[in-house]
Amino acid sequence: DVQLVESGGDSVQAGGSLRLSCVTTGSSECMGWFHQAPGKDREAVAAFDYGIKYYKESVKGRFTISRDNAKANLWMQMDNLEPEDTGTYYCAIGCTSFEDRWYEPRRFRYWGQGTQVTVS
Question: In the predicted model, is pLDDT for residue 99 greater than 90?
């Protein structure tokens, strides 16, 4: 199995910045970040899907996803953080069915354990 380890979560004040990292033992055309707020379902934030970069509307202009050339490690720069960004952030890689969309958790085969972000 592919292993994923996220890091970079922290507690920050609104308007602050964080950079999340995800180190994996795999490589994939599909790589993404998901956010799970307390008491809510996991939602896609940003992803690469066969060369196309996608963002959730509410993070456009604030978050930037990037990855290395090997398509094995993933980052997300998070600027101008808002209290609504609070939650656990999960890294995911591994394409599943082409019928699944980038924003659907089932699009990704492997998941990390998450890193906590708190914005106050």
Answer: no
